[in-house]
Amino acid sequence: MRSLPVPDPGVPDHRSATRFLLWHAARIWPTLAAGMALAVVNYVGQALMPAVLGKAIDAGLVGRDGDALLRWALVLLAVGVGQAVAGIIRHRFAVYNWLAGAYRTVQLTVEKANQLGATLPKRLATGEVVSIGTADINHIGGALDILSRGTGSIFAIGTIMAIMLSTSIPLGLVVLIGVPALMAIVGLLIRPLHRRQETYRDQQATLTTRASDIVSGLRVLRGVGGESVFAARYRAESQTLRRDGIRVARVEALMESAQVLLPGIFLVLVTWLGARFALRGEITVGQLVSFYGYTVFLVGPLRTLTEMIDRIVRGHVSARRVVALLRLEREVDEPTDPVTLPDRPGELVDIESGVTVRPGRLTALAAAVPADAVAITDRLGRYVDSEVTLCGVPLRGLPLATVRRRIMVADNNARLFSGPLRVELDPHDTADEATIEAALAVASATDIVEALPGGLAAGRVAERGREFSGGQQQRLRLARALVADPEALILIEPTSAVDAHTEARIAQRLGPARRGRTTLVCTTSPLVLDRADHVVFIEDGKAVAEGTHRELLRTEPRYAATVTRAEEE
User: Fold this and answer.
1) The three-state (H, E, C) secondary structure of 81-123, written as one string
2) N or C end of the chain, less CB within 10 A?
3) What residues does the ABC transmembrane type-1 domain cover (predicted)?
């Protein structure tokens, strides 16, 4: 019994889609080769059965030789059993190859997504990622699966051509010329089919992205009355997608009918010619029966070859999309020569803006333009490379694991994951009950847990925490960040979705809860700013004033205007 997925998917060759598919094939070459060999036995065995049947008719029935009839009947039985057994084992290998290709692609894409982190949503739309994880992995697996049957079909067709040419050159030439002609005719439909399929898939990915955006912003849309507008736009785009799907289905139906009709016409032609040759005595009755069996059997291999072309093209298109994902690079890389960071708290300094976050203090960052604060936190958390230092050591010289362990950036784009509530709040299972309850109290989220069936011990979170309001989700995210208790915690607008009373409680409790730890809060809330040990005012991306909240209100008119505007909002 083989286990999937494999522990180590390996390092993919993503120089091109073709190389990626070949890399996949090389990873499973034993089962791929075994599947091909068994497919050859299976298909060639089926191809030989009409010839054995013809021999039995000529030698046993026409020649009235009972021994010969029994002998050829036993040969027919042996060939039938052999090809059936080979077919069963071949199918097992083919299914394994399909699953191995699909699972390995999933492992590679998930691993790459984890490596990219915050870079992924900036470079690739949500719908594109979803399509890779659903449709494309199936097409890549299908391309590997079809190789065994396609190989068997090629050998079977070659065997039939050789037998027919040795028996009747005219009939053999008909098959020799007719088979490629049929393949060419059906092949003409494959290119337009895949062109329409690719268009359909792109639009499907776009629509999936739009649906995700609508769902994530549903509360905001309802608040501004835009729900009906976006719903109408989604409805119109979904109808366009439906029409494109129908266009794809038309070409698929045409190709399917051609795969049945054309071999059927070919079957009638070969049978008619064979009957005329038999009447003239050029071939025997047994050979006529064999020729009929060959043409009937050829329908299967011909369809398989067409299917192989179709699946390989689809797999190549899907591999091209996966390769595009695998080629994405993180905005920040691991240092080639990492340095050692002192094992003590230290100042976190952003040289570009002039912001200094002192250890053991609650610092607030108030920006006239919110995007400036986000840019600074991206640099402080090393989500982009910059000249930020911690304890005087440049972050760009530290391993990313070290940076992530000592500096946590918690923003409102973070998600709640489905599963047990306790695991959601303490993913690494390092905190005790008292620590978690204390974090919930600081985040003013105790009431959320108490209202949840099962409470902290047995409560569960639905997908993306959809059972919670925006404010409840924000408080649970804050509690999760507090439970992690990093050396330096950066909070981006942690109270933007809660009411004033809840905000006041959080502001009052946050400082004492983080005493002795480095904390930076990006906010323009007067309630939070008034509780901060130190406030830095940002304008045009630079620190232009520092002090306490009350000092800045008296001495810095631009700060007062920014804070007053936020309070009015």
Assistant:
1) HHHHHHHHHHHHHHHHHHHHHHHHHHHHHHHHHHHHHHHHHHH
2) N
3) 33-314
- More confident site: 335 or 204: 335
Give the integer Cα–Cα distance in Å for 535 and 503.
Answer: 18
| Best CA proximity match to 382, nearest among 364, 361, 405 | 405
Q: Average pLDDT over the chain, rounded to whole?
A: 82
- As its CATH architecture, domain 17-326 has Up-down Bundle (1.20)
Per-residue pLDDT tens over the stretch 363-383: 999 998 988 999 999 999 998
| C-alpha–C-alpha distance, residues 558 and 472, integer Å | 32
For residue 536, the cross-strand partners are: 365, 546
Partners of 355 in the beta sheet? 350
Place of tokens 């608040």: 223
Question: pLDDT-based confidence at 1, cuts 50/70/90?
Answer: very low
* Helix 227-279 vs helix 169-216: crossing angle, to nearest 10: 170
* Angle, in degrees to the nearest 10, between helices 470-484 and 433-442: 130
Predicted TM-score (pTM) of the model is 0.64
Correct CATH for 348-416+467-568 of 1.10.30.50, 2.102.10.10, 3.40.50.300, 3.40.50.2000: 3.40.50.300
Q: What is the pLDDT of residues 84-96, one digit of tens each?
A: 898 898 888 888 8
Report residue 460: phi and psi, to 5°. -130, 150
Q: Quote the CA–CA distance of 347 and 331 in Å, as a whole number.
A: 24
